[in-house]
Every structure is written in structure tokens, then in C-alpha cells.
Amino acid sequence: MLLNVLGLSAQQNSDTTKAKTTLLDDVVVYSSRFAEKFKRVAQTIDVLKTKEQLNFQLNTADALINSGKLFVQKSQQGGGSPVIRGFEASRILMVVDGVRMNNAIYRAGHLQNIITVDNMVLDRMEILYGPSSTLFGSDALGGVISLSTKEPILSSTYKTHFSGAATLRYSSAMQEKRGNIQLNIGGQKWASFTSVSYGSFGDLIQGSNRRPEYPNFGKRNIYVERVGNIDIVVPNSNPNKQIGSGYKQVDITQKFLFQASKNVQHVLNLQFSNTNDIPRYDRLSEMNGTVPVFAEWYYGPQIRNMAAYHLTAKDQVGFFKDIKITASFQDLEESRISRRFQSTNKDFRWERINVFGLNIDAKHYYGKHELHIGAESYSNYVKSTAERVQIVSGAKSRITTRYSDGPTTMATHAIFAQHTYKISDQLTINDGLRFNLVQLNAQFVDTALTRFPFTKAEQSNQSITGNFGIVYATKNNLRAAFVMSTGFRSPNVDDLAKVFDSRTGLVVVPNTSIKPEYTYNIEFNLNKYSKSFNYGVAVFYTAFDNALVLDRYLFNGQDSIFYSGIKSAVFALQNKAKAGLYGLSLNASVQMGQTFSVEGVINFTKGQFRDAINGKTPLDHIPPTYGRFALKRQGLKWNADLSVLFNGWKRLAAYNLNGEDNLQYATPDGMPAWYTLNFRSSFQLKKQVQLQINLENIFDLNYRYFASGISAPGRNLSLSLRAAF
Question: Residue 33 in contact with residue 128, Cβ under 8 Å?
């Protein structure tokens, strides 16, 4: 059975055999970079590990959605922006194989970068709830998503061993055609792991059964085509087909492992992800009266290249027994291309980011104490370019870049110490401190178009963050933990050096005086394992200080300016509010006999800003109540579950009108509640062949995730076939 403890999915022996009862001593987490038993960790952690949870999903964002653990926002089909306890985008940290994914231009709105990590190659995902800046540094205000990809496997004999798998997927609602092939070559000391994935996704078809009070919600009645030199509006023969949402993606992972000795291992980790143009569906669906606002709006190819070297040394002689070193380089590209309806001016904005990273972790053991010492350094180099092309004549002209057009750098450096005192088999204390230094230097060379009253933006921010937790785990598998922790986020290039960012009628300008944000968290969590009944609860309160909020601003003494030919109100990020967030998560599972179980998880979060002018205002990014319930059957050859995935109402009064809640994509009353009934079944056809059949949103309901600009899939038949060799 799959057990949920504070959302933590207990591990199975395999994906195809009958599971045994899992005890606290069986659950191991890796979020601290070293393996640790869950009963020794105070922080709330979720683990997703099985193939059904990870590899047999549309993408990494959908793996999170279908777990019921996290809320995920979507602006287009090719994306997904996870939310942890009301924090999103640059306020949570994503890590892949120990390498920090957050870079200098991660924005505070909604981020779609998680899909650049191929879910078909994932070995596990760990979600850390609450501020995690002691181990992970800036950006981990709300938590961390740690993604781990599969490792090369050495041969267990004297012969070189070849193994692998091929997976094919098809989904009807988005015409998904996806394939993956993996190959492992293992010797006694050397091993290689290769994975290649390719996916083609058509225009997403939304559900046809709408609530009677919103009979036209989400319909795509028209779209734009260019015929000759004229934009024309074309009626959509199927309004449920969200034309302008399809895309393609390729992902390649290559790892080489060298086992130098029993306790020393070297790994070279190469990852490549590339998409074609990804349409920004939410912008393409915007209307100005009866005509579209945009004829074209898409992200250019999103490219993530990563090369990392990992050194792992265990049971060493000397002060530090365990050592891990990761050196990494990331080369990232993204772009935004847009053209307004019936305009011949097409705007291109490109970003190229190079990130050099180094992580050093070392662990010392003395008696009942463990001391984890670490150092971290990441340097970001950002290049931002832009041009306007007159699509009829081909003439090119200057436009403002998205970020500062001169040399732009951002560096984060830190040292930390995390201490674990294992007082007894039942009682553990965790505590730690971290010193952070973040430096940013952005140069504005060409200010003729922007008319900025400055030519550079420089900051050097220092911070000390910490955590304290106490865990008590009884011999009969009851675990209780209390934890206090702080989070820190220094303004990045997107916050400080974004030239202009426009929505229709609103333009965001840079504010070079903003300062870091901080969170202060307190939580209590409790969970119980037993043979037939398991449950967990976590309650938390987070104080959010010096919060950056988007509010009205004066640019060169004016409260509005003309941008892209439209008079737009001026807004800017400002440290002008405090916020409080609190929430509750509950989960339970009941085992009924040898093969059947029932499990469920429900999450509730609420948050409000407080400032001297506006009083209490709803905090943006706060999801409605959400969760998942499932009836599961698990056996040797056949597994199945019947599940309900649900979201509660997000009423109009709970929206933040100036933030990132995107009321323009909701109904006049907010975002309605919804639920979907889903069936999933997997069959072990042969020892090495597995078939999975999913039927999602069985009732073909029309719904949309809060803050999202694209409707979710309607009734969807998904088939996955995996053959191992």
C-alpha cells in the first residue's frame, strides 16, 4: 500500500509487488543532501517515488498536480507553476540533482521552468514545506522542490551489464505523442546512463460540461490567422479546442559514473532540454471588445543545458566522514515574441543566462551529534537583447530590452552549519545557521528609450537565517515534531532590473530601492504509522516581512505612460507590506485487507497583506482548498485506483487585484470549485512489460485552476506502454 504521512508517500519494495507495512525507520529522505531517516527530520516533507507518480504523467508539473500534494498554476499547456504554502515562482526553490535551478531572472509571477526537467527520467521528488534557507539559501521562502534523476547502475557481476527501457505514451485530450528510451551500461567500476525523450502535444481540448451560471466560460470562439499581409479573425469550429496551445519538447540526460573505490564515487551529469515555440495561451485569449489583443504571443525555444560534476566520499578518515562536492554550469536561453492584432510590428526579446555553481557539503559525527558544514556559491551572467521587426518590410528597429542591456551579474555566496543531536532513539534536535551574501550589479547602457533617472542598479545584501526543530518518535511509530525556521530572498535581476513589463493598460517599471524579503515560520506536525491506519496533520503560521508587492508608482513624476502605444498606469515592486499566512494539511490512509486501501489528502492555506494605507488585503498566490481522495487496489499483476481530484472556490473577495491572481481569466465571481473523477490502472503484461490505462475527468467537466489562463483537459484517455530489457 502507499502510505501518506504528512503527505509523505511511504516507499514500496517495487512498483509491481504487494507492499509491506512501512515503519518510521523505513522512510529515508535526501533533502539535506545526506540520507536521513524521516523520524529524525523536523520539517514536513513529501516524497513522490513510484513510476506511476512520476514517469507515467504528462510532465513534471502534472506529476505534482495529480499527487494532490501541491497546487500548480498554468498560463499555457507547456508549463506549470507550483505553489508551496502560498509561495510561488521565485519565492520557492527548485533543485535538480543538487543543483539550484533558480537563476537571476526567475520572476515573482508564474514560472513554467519545471517542465524542463523530464519526468520520465525522475527517480524521486521531495517537497520541503516551510522556509528552508538554512540549507538552501535565498528564494526558499515557502519551501523547496528537490528533483532527483536516475543514476547509472554498476554491474553486480564480472561482466558488463546492459539494461534499459522504452516507454510510449498517448493522451487524447491534447493529442500527446511521447516516447522515451533509456539505456544503462554497467561495468564493475564504470557505468553509463542515457535517456532521450521526445514529446509532441497538440491543442488542448477542455471539458464540455460547464456550470449553468457560466455557460461560455473558457470557450475559444475565435482565433487569429494571417492571410497575406492582413490579420483576420477566424471562427473556431470547436470552441472547446484551445487553439494556440500545442508545442513540442525534447529532453536528453547523460550520466557517467566512476566508482574509484568502495566509498568514493564520481558522476558526470549532462542534461539538455529544448522546446519549440510555446504559445502563451492566456495572452492569445485576451480580448479588446470583440477583437483579440494579440495576433501572436509565444515563448521562443526554451533551452536548459546543464553540466555537473558530483563527488561523493563516504566513511573517510579524518574530521569529516562524509563529503559531497557538486560543481555545475548551466547555459539557459528563453525569449518572448509578441505582436498585437493588426499591427505589423513584431517584438523580440531574448535572454541568455550562464550560471556557475559550487556546493560543498561535509559531515562530522561525534557521539550522538552530527555536524553538517556547507558552502555554496552561484554566479549568474545575464545578457538581454531586443529588436522590433516590421514584418511587411523587414525593417528592424530598437526597442527596450526586458532587463538591463549592459553587463548584468548576480552572485550568491553562503556558508552554513546544520547540527543534529540524536539524544535517544526517540528524541532528536535539529538546529542550524546560515550566512548569506547576495550581490547584484546591473548596467543600463541605452537609456534613450527608457529615460531612466539612473544608469545602474547595485545591491549587496547580507542575511543570517536559522532553524530549530525537535522531533519525538515513539517505538510504536507515532512521530511529533515542532519546528521554527526563517527564510530569505534577495531581489534578483527580474525584481531590480526589469526594464518594462506590460499587461494591457498596466506597465511595471524598475524600482532600484527594493530590499530583501524575509519569512518566519512556526509549525507543528504529527503522524502515525500502523498496519491498517495511518494519518498525518501539519499546521503552520508564517510571518512574511518586507514583502515585495506590486502597487502604483511614479515614473519620472508621472503615474501613467504610453507603452506599446497604449496609455498604461505605472506600477512597481515595493517593500510596503507585511503578510501573515497560516494553513493546515491533513491526510490519512486505511488498509482494507491485502489489496485494497483508501487514502486522502486535503490542504488549506490563507494569507493577507497588511499595510498602513490599504489595511488588510488578500495575499496573491494563495490557492483555494485542494486535495485528492482515492480508492486503491494493489496486487502482483494488476494495480488500480479510482480517485477524486478537487479544488474549492476562490471567491472574488479573496483575489488580490494588483498581484498575480489573474482575475481577468476567471468568472465575474472568481474561480469556481471543481472536482474530477479519474480511473487509473496498470497491468504487468509480462515480467518486463507494463501497460497503464488512465481515464481522467470522466464526466468531461469544464474547469480551470485558480490564477490560470488556460482551461484544464476534458475527458482524457491516456495510454502508457513500458518495456524493459
Answer: no
